[in-house]
Amino acid sequence: MAGRFHGRTAFVTGGSRGIGKGIVQRFAEEGASVAIIDVNEEALIEAEHELRERGFNVFTQVANVVEAEEVESAVQAAYDRFGSIDILVNNAGVIRDNMLFKMTDGDWDTVMNVHLKGSFNAARAVQRYMVDNNYGRIINISSTSALGNRGQANYATAKAGLQGFTKTLSIELGRFGITCNAVAPGFIETEMTKQTAARIGISFEDLVKASVEKIPVGRSGKPEDIANAAAFFADERSSFVSGQVMYVAGGPKN
Hints:
By secondary structure, the protein is of the alpha/beta class. The protein is 48% helix and 15% strand. It folds into 2 domains: 9-186 and 222-246, 3-Layer(aba) Sandwich (Rossmann fold), CATH 3.40.50.720; 187-220, no CATH class.
């Protein structure tokens, strides 16, 4: 299938649902071969089936981003299958929301490990293929929560950390034709935001309504909104854009 990503391979962590799935679909629709890793085998099988039914070139493997060996094995397998790793999207994420005085060591460690260690593991695994090819696009999924959000000391810290990670990789890898940027979503309708509604004890519909009232464009975000931003950063023509954080939130974020 022709498209701006024809001949490219996109590797997406946590790509079987929500924002990750939206990004996978966008890259596939625009011609990329897509490799997806996820810990949720059932969702991964379902996503693979949907993509193959549409005629897309897809590879999936169950892997935990926190485990470096699992990530490296999946990256190697994707490279062997498609012949290149051109785009990495570090999307895998979890929430363990709680106020500071209620937050456990496990709540903190789980969020740090998945978002930060997971992104480190994936970036380290793909960079050697990108350096050898003198081309690459690394896209980290941050969040508006990086600016601070009640009940998310762990998540906000991890998402802010990803922005520093992004800027550092852009400095280190730029001379190898590799850019690194971050997309910071605002309120997006996903399973994760449904978990947030359940945590604070309101219906998802009420959470959407309350969120939309604060969004200047007057609507909530969808996974395809984030996919649009990721596709911009992944484009060959975006080679002079690196180390940037794009807030996709329906309005300005300071």
